[in-house]
Amino acid sequence: MAGAQPDPRFWEDTKVTVTGGAGFLGKPVVRQLGELGALVRVTRSAEHDLRVAEQARDAVEGAEVVLHLAARVGGIGFNRRNPAPLAYDNTIMGTHIFEQSRLAGVRKLVAACSVCAYPKFTPVPFSEDSLWDGYPEESNAPYGLAKKMLIVLSDAYRRQYGFDSCAPIMANLYGPDDNFDLEDSHVIAAMIRKFVEARERGDENVTLWGTGSPSREFLYVDDAARALILAAERLDSSQPVNIGTGIETSIRDLAATIHGLSGFEGEVVWDTSMPDGQPTRYLDVSRARELIGFEAETPLEDGLRRTIESFRGQRASLAAG
């Protein structure tokens, strides 16, 4: 089923600031906004330290719509090494973006929340009504709680100032231009790198973390970008709204798919001494369908194929110097 598409009439000549617009999620958001006729300004951490109020104000000055995507983020390994920066940087950036957007007269703010905000043990599929029922999985709690504050800020600023904002809850994202660093990447990017490099080297096996038994939901980054743009157009509420596919995929099945698409012919070895993370995670996406008409459109295998091609292209360009 095809989901709703953004309306160019809403976006034509609209001044939009995208924080983190040069990042993994930011790139397709900026590209789609440009295609819709928006006047897009991209802010980068090298130019605007959003942890500083004055620099956050400069980033949003003159914007009619702000999409706040900038975040300190990584996979399980990164989360375990950096709990304090994950908590501090994401909390302070979100707080400054809300306050400075309000002061600058921004018409609409969309701040991307994360599925990591959910409690560790949440009935599946995750309903927005379960968001406050417990503490997040320990390895990603500092990040998840900082992102959860975006929902609190949105509600508080709407009630206090009538400021129109929302904080959609994003599923695990994947796609071209992801971070493929094995230390800091998320599961799909890490797997793709391992399988592709193992094939190139002619290895006999690939070792993956954990047992393979947990399940996740994976949202292609272009679909996520469209959802955020639709939220800016249509979501006139601060209530949490899940953005995802609603489809559960086990890590073991994911590995089997990437194994096949990569052309690797060896064996998979599961290192059960390494953590699995949250046991099960996929979303009830009915609220997004009802409120903004969003449906994910990219089948997992198609998205994985494009992501593998992107990674191979990165490696080829690096090898070419």
Jot down its keywords:
321 residues, five-stranded parallel sheet
How would you classify the quaternary structure? single chain
Supply the number of helical segments. 11
Share of helix, binned: 40-55%
Mean pLDDT: 95
Strand content: 5-15%
Low-confidence stretches: none
Order of helices and strands: HEHEHEHHEEHEEEHEEEHEEHEHH
Sheet with the most strands: spatial strand order: 2-1-3-4-6
Biggest beta-sheet profile = 5 strands, parallel
Ends: how far apart? 43 Å
* Estimated radius of gyration: 19 Å
* Strand runs, count: 14
- Name the overall outline: globular
Given the helix and strand composition, which structural class is it? alpha/beta
Question: What does this 3D model show about the protein?
Answer:
The protein has 321 residues and is α/β, with parallel strands linked by helices. Helices cover 43% and strands 14% of the residues. It has helices spanning 8-11, 26-35, 53-60, 76-81, 83-103, 141-161, 187-201, 221-234, 251-262, 286-292, 300-320, and strands at residues 15-19, 39-43, 65-68, 108-111, 113-114, 165-166, 169-170, 172-174, 205-209, 215-216, 218-220, 242-243, 249-250, 267-271. The strands form five sheets. It has a five-stranded parallel β-sheet with strand order 2-1-3-4-6, with helices on both faces. The longest helix is centred in the N-terminal third of the chain and has 21 residues, at 83-103. It is globular and about 60 Å long. The mean pLDDT is 95.
